[in-house]
Prior knowledge:
Layout: H1 19-33, E1 42-44, E2 48-49, H2 54-66, E3 71-76, E4 79-85, E5 93-97, H3 107-115, H4 135-152, E6 161-165, H5 174-180, E7 184-189, H6 192-200, E8 206-208, H7 211-224, E9 228-233, H8 236-245, E10 252-253, H9 273-282, H10 284-307, E11 311-312, H11 319-325, H12 337-347, E12 351-357, H13 362-375, H14 380-392, E13 400-405, H15 409-422, E14 430-434, E15 442-443, H16 461-472, E16 477-482, E17 492-500, H17 504-527, H18 531-540
Parallel strand pairs: 3-5, 5-16, 6-7, 6-10, 7-9, 8-9, 10-11
Antiparallel strand pairs: 1-2, 3-4, 12-13, 12-14, 14-17, 15-17, 16-17
The structure holds nicotinamide-adenine-dinucleotide.
Amino acid sequence: MPNPRFPTPGGPVLRAKGWRQEALLRLLENVLCVGEDPDNLVVYAALGRAARNWAAHDRIVKTLKTMDEDQTLLIQSGKPIGLIRTHVDAPLVIMANCNIVGQWAKAEVFYELQDKGLICWGGLTAGAWQYIGSQGVIQGTYEIFMRIAEKRFGGTLAGRFVLTAGLGGMGGSQPLAGRMAGAAILCVDVDPVRAEKRKAIGYLDAIAPDLDAALALISAAKSEGRALSVGLVGNAAEVYPEILRRGITPDVVTDQTAAHDLVYGYVPKGFSLDEVKALRTSDPARLMAASRASIVEHVTAMLGFQRAGAEVFDNGNLIRTHARDGGVADAFDIPIFTEAYLRPLFCRAIGPFRWMALSGDADDIRKIDDLVVERFPDNHIVTNWIRLARANVPFEGLPARIAWLGHGQRTEVALAVNAMVRDGGLAGPVAFSRDHLDAGAMAHPNIMTERMKDGSDAIADWPLIDAMALCASKADLVVVHSGGGGYAGFMTSAGVTLVADGTAAADSRLSSALTNDTSIGVMRYADAGYAEAVDEARDKGIDWFDLSAG
Ligand code: NAD
């Protein structure tokens, strides 16, 4: 449902002094165009913002339109603080978002600083203008479902019941990803507007009037092996325990409510949405306590499903952390999706790479789809995804594609695309970025780096090295984000954006930054002792120093 105040950018006309600046401007416009609450600059996940406030936003826009190619715009937590003269190979934009010194890095301090207008949270891709709508998270969720299907259910989720909750900006991808994996998936959300929105855009097949009707629809689809997504308006802290009480065990259970945020995200049971809204300002401490108490019941039910044989996993929303703080001692018996299913891919720096057609022309993405399928015919993760995404995932905002590509592959695609831009094969330049949840780019001991082989979970040196190396490798935008779900103290990550404008200079930037970024990813896992990463470093000629022999 496009918001007329935030139109999709596109077309051949430059408003800036060059395509690099214009590209970053279009990406900023794009995250607002596809965001959840653009009037408040919120892109997703309750408070993930594209800029600190409207004055900051307007100054960023003005600066991107007027700055020269040899200048660098500095942004501190969504506020532009100045321009420095650098050189044409330096990043155009350098950002740091929501980094709070260790002993102070707590949600309460974040809220206080935010209230004073001193900081804002950038999520993983909101603050760095890299969000492409639901597609990015759809593929992540789909890949998780497929790894579970391979591990437990013979390669498909057809005939399987997946239970989850949360139909927001990210969580709203779950019904579509579940359906694409063949499952009968039930998605609980407390807010009817969110459920209706997912149904209206074709991500959710049906909304059931009550739990009995929802379970009947799921049961019928499951027995026929038919893919189906069903929404249910309800509170997960009530619905999960009730399903458990009835003795029904789903095959797969997870959750993607905004549980990271006990005030602005999670809705405790027994409260209406209006009551929660009022309590956010009148009594946030009471709301936090009520949310934590509900999460205790929610996660206790998830553990009950696990004991009954379901495949249960945490989908990166800190729900286990809050449950443990609330007294659920075994909350971390539920594994995190990265460690459980994706780490072998990260060892080879295979992760969520994406590209956006700055022209706004969907044909550009179709042409790049063809190129990628042609270049990597044996890469089934990529070819399968592109086939499925073409058939099922509508473009939102600037046409874009995500594909899990690794070291060397990203550079190969980017250089081929830059050549297409140069030769006039595409309607305009293309921007490349990736999720911050990428091999060398994130330290998050409750998501990305949980239970690392060498115990290096909480060491944040890696994303900082990555960001500094990206600046030295000619990237167009480089960012260091911190906070994680919970806003402070949970995560540090690095982000990067590059522009393929068809020039020889872009060849050099793409090659250097993308190759070095994935090299660091492989080195990070090799250094932690993962054999797949050591092999990848050796096979791909990555100059990693193996000091393990002394
Ligand atoms: P969002 O704020 O847009 O949506 C959250 C949804 O949860 C809302 O629709 C809300 O109504 C619903 N909700 C809240 N409490 C509920 C309850 N008790 N029962 C049922 N529904 C409830 O957030 P989002 O962008 O969808 O992100 C969801 C979570 O996923 C966040 O915690 C985010 O940090 C996390 N996330 C994880 C990854 C990852 O690593 N896999 C990626 C993106 C987002």
